[in-house]
Amino acid sequence: MKQLEKLIDRIINRVNINLREPAFDVRPYIQNIIPLHQFGKFYAFYGLTSHHPLYFRFNHSSLAGSYFLGKCIVDYSVLYKSDIRGDELKSQGDTHRYRDLEIPLHDDEVIHIKDSFLIKTLVHNFSHDPENLEELLIQNTVALNYANIHGSTVEGCYLGPFSSVDLTTLHDCVIGTFAYVQVGELSHQFVEAGKVWIKNGDLFDFQYTLPEVVLKKYVEFQPGQVPQGIFMDFIERCKPEFQRVFDNVHVKPPVPVPKGAALNPFAVVKGQTSIRRNVLVAQRAYLENAYLGRGANAQENCYILNSHLEENDVTAHGGKIIHAVLGSKVFVGFNAFLHGRKENPLKIGGGCIVMPHTIIDLEEPLEIPAGHLIWRYLKNRHDL
Predict the structure, then answer these.
(1) Which of 164, 182, 298, 311 could form a cystine bridge with 334, CB 3.0-4.6 A?
(2) Could you give the CA distance from residue 73 to residue 24 in angstroms, rounded to a whole number?
(3) All residues at 6 or more sequence positions from 237 whose CB lies less than 8 Å from its CB, including other chains
(4) Pairing status of strand 274-275 against strand 297-298
(5) Is 0.85 surpassed by the pTM of this model?
(6) Mean per-residue pLDDT for 225-235?
């Protein structure tokens, strides 16, 4: 326990040094958020496949309940029930194109986590930083419950609960609770809670922020406390089912798995659930009375309940879909929350994009026509 305390204290000090500007102290946010005895209760996992190189090295680290795939290095870090998925890392000999430049890779890319504290965090995709192509680096960083780090080099940062950093290089930044950024590169910035910010050079700059009263209803986080709100209540209700899955490592698939489909043994599958060809269900996904048509997927921390997904629907990390029917080629972004009800179902037409961190929580039935972009907070037809 004392060694773990020293390690956490070391990480806090290193992150705080980076966050001198903006002035931000991570200590009250992570001290005691996970009781120390919890770190000894869970084993870690390393995924073995015939498609990904085997390489896993960890040093002076705690990896309780975490899942790794592909080439990974962890040094002087604490990971708790996090998912480090390196199935899309670049390979030696690949050529990375950046603007008019072509840059060949000398070595296979590796995910390298150093001096960091990740709680229930998802790390996926490859580095898009042209200055560091062989390493997706997460260093001197704290990321809390259900944060997403997607193709983003992150150094000296704090990521609040349910935040997402997407295809963005971050240096010395604070990303607030349930904030989403995809801006290419960001340094010494404080992104407020509930903000969605997508920028592509001089082409466009898309920003909006959820009203504080809405944000607090769904997720609220105060120093010294665990996150609270509708998101956490929903996840906690499903938590016992995951405990049963992780207690039984080798289990027969609970539903037929057709050719080309992949159902991770660490996913929960309940009720009248059906998956079709070329479906991907990742670890820590939750399916109950769900139909996933050909080519659909449910990525890490996704929950799909009492819903029907047609062909080639993508549910990105942390997406939640309840009592909904989705047409073909619908994309549901990171940590989106689509909450229909039996008496108030949700229907989304084909070809729609549900923006990351969108909240749809219906008080009446709602049908969204095909080919639309959906964002912000919707309760009814008037909001749409």
Answers:
(1) 164
(2) 28
(3) none
(4) unpaired
(5) yes
(6) 96
The pLDDT mean for the chain works out to 95
Dihedral over alpha carbons 77, 83, 84, 85 (to 10 degrees): 180
* 103 shares its domain with 199: yes
Residue 382 CB-density burial (10 A; 0-12 exposed, 13-18 middle, 19+ buried): exposed
Q: Report DSSP state, residue 383.
A: T
Rama region for 238: left / alpha / beta (φ>0; ψ in -120 to 50; rest): alpha
- CB count, 10 Å around CB of 160? 23
pLDDT (tens digit per residue) in 242-254: 988 888 766 688 9
Helix (H, G, I), strand (E, B) or coil at 342: coil
Average pLDDT over residues 41-70: 92
H-helix or E-strand spanning residue 217: helix 212-218
Judged by DSSP in three states, 14 sits in: helix
Side by side, the strands of the sheet bearing 164-166 are 45-47, 67-69, 83-85, 122-124, 148-150, 164-166, 180-182, 195-200, 204-209
pLDDT digits (tens, 9 = 90+) for 205-229: 999 999 999 999 999 999 989 999 9
Per DSSP, 37 falls in state: G
Residue 303 sits in the same domain as residue 185: no
Instruction: Name the token pair of 161.
Output: 């609960």
| CA–CA distance, 184 with 191 (Å, rounded to integer) | 14
H/E stretch holding 164 reads strand 164-166
Residue 356 and residue 286 share a domain: yes
18-35 pLDDT per residue, tens = 999 889 999 999 988 899
Confidence check: pLDDT of 203 > 80:
yes
In the block, tokens 């903006």 appear at 22
Shared domain check, 277 and 201: no
Q: Let me know: does 178 contact 218? Beta carbons within 8 Å.
A: yes
What's the pLDDT tens digit per position in 333-349?
Answer: 999 999 999 999 999 99
Q: Given 165, 199, 222, which residue is the final one in a domain?
A: 222
pLDDT attached to residue 47: 87
What gap in Å lies between CA 324 and CA 305, rounded to an integer?
8
Is 121 in contact with 149 (CB distance < 8 Å)? yes
On whether both 159 and 86 belong to a single domain, the answer is yes
Beta pairing partners, 13: none
